[in-house]
Amino acid sequence: MGDIIDQEKIPFVALADGEKIPCIGMGTFGSDRYGPAEVSAAAAGAIRLGYRLFDCASVYGNEDLIGKVFEDAIAGGTVRREDLFITSKVWNDMHGKGDVLLSLAKTLRDLRLEYADAYFIHWPFPNYHAPGCDGDARNPDSVPFSAERFLQTWREMERIYRMGLARHICMSNMTVSKLEAVLPSCVIKPSLIEMEIHPSFRQDELFNYCQKQKIRVIGYCPIGSPNRPDRDKAPGDVVDTELPEVAAIARAHNIHPALVCIKWQVQRGSIPIPFSVHEKNYAANLKAVTTDPLSTAEMELLKKAERNCRLVKGQVFLWPGAKGWEDLWN
Ligand SMILES: NC(=O)c1ccc[n+]([C@@H]2O[C@H](COP(=O)([O-])OP(=O)(O)OC[C@H]3O[C@@H](n4cnc5c(N)ncnc54)[C@H](OP(=O)(O)O)[C@@H]3O)[C@@H](O)[C@H]2O)c1
Question: Which residues line ligand 1 (CB under 6 A)?
Answer without folding.
Answer: 27-29, 31, 55, 122, 172-173, 194, 220-228, 256, 258-259, 273-278, 281, 284-285, 312
